[in-house]
Amino acid sequence: MYRYLVFSATYYYPGGGMEDCYLKSSSVDEVLEKLKSLTSETVPNEIYQIYDIENDLSLKYESVLNDCKLEESENENGITIYTPESIERFLNQVRKDLG
Predict the structure, then answer these.
(1) Rounded to an integer, what distance in angstroms lies between the CA atom of residue 23 and that of residue 20?
(2) Are 72 and 83 contacting, i.e. CB atoms less than 8 angstroms apart?
(3) Contact between 95 and 28 (Cβ < 8 Å)
(4) What angle do CA 49, 64, 14 make, to 5 degrees?
(5) H helices, E strands: number in the chain
(6) 93: which DSSP letter?
(7) What is the pLDDT along the chain (99 residues), one digit of tens a residue?
(8) C-alpha distances in angstroms, 75 versus 3, 40, 45, 80, 92?
(9) Exposed, middle or buried by CB within 10 Å (0-12, 13-18, 19+), for 76?
(10) What angle do CA 18, 20, 24 make, to 5 degrees?
(11) Which of 34, 86, 92, 98 has the fewest CB neighbours in a 10 Å radius?
């Protein structure tokens, strides 16, 4: 059985339930790597949620509320992305929250 489920969605088009599940894993490192991948996409999602099955703990981060401190900038093509520095801060916060 997996320990962590990683979900991600946008406000305007959430799939709902397991359709928003991007990873099932027992490794914190895999969770962090998937979050790094998801936040580095050209059009990143706005909601990130990790469910720790073992501890029945749900961690939810919403970029619109800025509780995950993801800062936006534009790339060379004028597309909004999250800055690499803010992605690292977010991953450090998740690492800390997962203990």
Answers:
(1) 9
(2) yes
(3) yes
(4) 50
(5) 2, 6
(6) H
(7) 899 999 998 877 766 788 899 999 999 999 999 999 988 877 778 889 999 999 999 999 887 666 677 888 888 888 778 888 888 988 999 999 998
(8) 35, 12, 16, 6, 23
(9) exposed
(10) 65
(11) 92
Q: What sign does the CA torsion over 23, 36, 46, 75 have?
A: negative
- The rounded distance, in Å, linking the Cα atoms of 58 and 46 is 16
Distance (Å, whole) CA 53 – CA 2:
8
Tokens read off for 17: 């339930």
**Domain parsing of the chain, residue ranges:** 4-98
CA–CA distance, 32 with 14 (Å, rounded to integer): 21
Reduced 3-state DSSP string for 49-68: EEEECCCCEEEEEECCCCCC
- Report which DSSP code applies to 17: G
- 70: three-class secondary structure by DSSP: coil
Which tokens belong to 52?
């720790």
